[in-house]
Design a protein that fits this description.
With 564 residues, this protein is of the alpha/beta class. The protein has 19 helices and 26 strands. Helix content is 35%, strand content 20%.
């Protein structure tokens, strides 16, 4: 039996699998062209211990913060592990950050070194980040890094011996492992501190609730700088010893997904919606309805759709970060893919609530995970006490105290309700409620969910504080923009469709919630320009700062659909 079989921390996990399955492939990374880099558990251990030995040779004080910037790659995870084996703390940075925020995080976290990985010069913020880096910040480049003038991972491990077995120092479960800076919708990002124990808490929940095993395969493409991907992909793969594959870029995503053939697929509503709309373009819903009602043929068609998506081997599909429209959830479940909604926060390492197989209820994010306690406060706020609970906010004890109750519950900021079985439904944000000029409060999220069914609309924001009635901002999908430019779609067509959608949704709303009009915005809201978080949630305050100054003018026009 492996002496690291306890797998109490992620470094223990790496050593356990390297000892018991050294030749099994852990990670598969696309390179240029059709080349693939395959990393076995034994190779992972060797490279990590060599880099860790190099980091130790730099003489940094124990527990030094080290920045880790880059897109998902095999060496992102190896670098994370090397930082820990060297006795330091990882500070992950999103590759889409602007330069000012990246510089702030490095300065606030007191990072003394940056490990720089894969970056996309066009999609990422590297051109903005690079000049904002401290001039004296040492950099180590990982494979696929944009910098060629710094010490490089491959060169370092080629000339550095691994830490000897007897000299390996493994961390305590309560020791600080990482400082995760929240993407945040307002103000400066906060540094959420997590221990090795809180990071591993998610693995126990997956084991006990979803029967995750060594035989799983996952595709890594959502940002590893966020706790969701770090928990479900990095932590789970290290704990259970299953294989992970990496997506190269947007253009190759479908091919990367087909290569991975994931048994567990984790995504966000925006991508689930894109998949759904892409299938509808090829096989219109009316035709689907006919085919899905034909015995035998129905099963063949549904299996073909899942195969085309690359999800025919998927036994468990997870959606998180925001609500998915009920009709889309039902569509996937009709295909035989039970989409499981889950809920969590950076502050509890994503370990909070999850829908259990066979116990799904549309609109609910499921039961509290094993070991999690929850309650609804008097103001409707969801409060959670989780094994994944953070150690606190870095250098901000006042904010830590503000976000925790006296008896140790995290104030999530989300409003919610529980059904008779204890399943949780998120009904909006405590602070997102806004008051119209008529003195009525409106919760925007449920209204946005009702609107989020049009195939040409990518993102929606319902707003209208101090206005007579709320209104909606629509950002068109890139496909819709391209069709308008080509003339295969007209503004008149979309205007009528949006009018119909508005009428339909308003019929289901209370009088004070009914939307006055829709505004089709001309700009794209992206992660890069700050309108979306890295998990593609809207930054409501940023959007409102830009558009609310026009609300009086729009209201006075008395039009149902307005093109900005």
């Amino acid at each position: 039996m492996s002496k690291y079989a306890s797998r109490s921390t992620l470094p223990h996990c790496l050593l356990h699998w390297a000892e018991t399955s050294p030749n099994a492939i852990y990670m598969t990374q696309p390179l240029q062209g059709d080349q693939l880099l395959e990393v076995t558990w034994g190779q992972a251990r060797d490279e990590v211990l060599r880099m860790a030995n190099h980091l130790k040779s730099l003489g940094l004080p124990a527990g030094t913060s080290i920045g880790l910037l880059g897109r998902n790659s095999a060496h992102w995870i190896l670098a994370d592990l090397a930082i820990w084996f060297a006795g330091h703390v990882t500070v992950p940075l999103y590759p889409t950050l602007n330069g000012e925020t990246a510089a702030y995080i490095l300065e606030h976290s007191e990072s003394k070194l940056l490990m720089l990985g894969k970056m996309d010069g066009t999609a990422d913020g590297w051109k903005d980040i690079e000049p904002a880096l401290p001039a004296d910040m040492p950099i180590i480049s990982l494979p696929l890094s944009p910098r060629k003038d710094t010490p490089h991972w491959n060169d370092i491990i080629a000339k550095t011996e691994p830490i000897a077995e007897d000299d390996i120092q493994l961390p305590a479960t309560g020791a600080l492992a990482t400082i995760v800076y929240t993407s945040g919708s307002t103000g400066r990002p906060k540094g959420v501190m997590h221990s090795f124990g809180t990071m591993c808490s998610v693995a126990a929940g997956l084991r006990d609730t979803y029967n995750v095993t060594r035989d799983e395969r996952m595709l890594s493409y959502l940002p590893l700088a966020h706790v969701a991907e770090r928990a479900v992909v990095e932590t789970a793969s290290l704990y259970f010893g299953f294989s992970i594959y990496f997506a190269d870029k947007l253009e190759t995503f479908q091919r990367d997904l087909q290569r991975a053939q994931p048994t567990i697929f984790f995504s966000v509503p925006r991508l689930w919606t894109k998949f759904y709309l892409a299938i509808n373009d090829k096989l219109p819903p009316k035709k689907q309805k006919i085919l899905f009602n034909i015995p035998i043929l129905s099963g063949i068609i549904k299996r073909k759709i899942l195969t085309q998506l690359g999800l025919d081997k998927t036994r468990m599909a997870i959606t998180a970060a925001a609500p998915l429209p009920p009709n889309i959830l039902q569509w996937y479940r009709g295909l035989g893919l039970e989409l499981l909604e889950v809920y969590g926060m950076s502050e509890n390492f994503g370990y909070s609530h999850g829908t259990r197989i066979g116990e799904a209820r549309i609109g609910y994010v499921g039961h509290a995970n094993p070991g999690v306690h929850h309650r609804i406060a008097e103001n409707g706020e969801v409060q959670v006490k989780s094994p994944g609970q953070m150690l606190g906010y870095f250098k901000d004890p006042a904010k830590t105290a503000e976000d925790m109750t006296d008896d140790g519950y995290l104030k999530t900021g989300d409003r919610g309700e529980l059904d008779e079985q204890g399943r949780l439904r998120i009904t909006g944000r405590v602070k997102e409620l806004f008051k119209t000029s008529k003195g009525k409060y409106v919760a925007p999220v449920p209204v946005e969910q009702k609107l989020n069914v049009h195939p040409k609309v990518e993102v929606i924001c319902v707003t209208g504080p101090s206005q007579p009635q709320p209104f909606a901002l629509f950002m068109l999908s890139l496909d819709a923009v391209a069709e308008l430019e080509k003339g295969s779609l007209t503004k008149e067509q979309l205007t009528q469709e949006f009018k119909d959608l508005l009428s339909s949704v308003n019929e289901s709303l209370e009088d004070h919630e009914r939307l006055d009009y829709i505004v089709v915005v001309k700009d794209q809201w992206t992660i890069e320009n700050g309108f979306l978080t890295p998990t593609m949630k809207i930054k409501r305050n940023i959007i409102e700062d830009k558009y609310l100054t026009n609300a009086d003018t729009w209201c006075a026009r008395r039009e149902r659909v307005i093109w900005e």
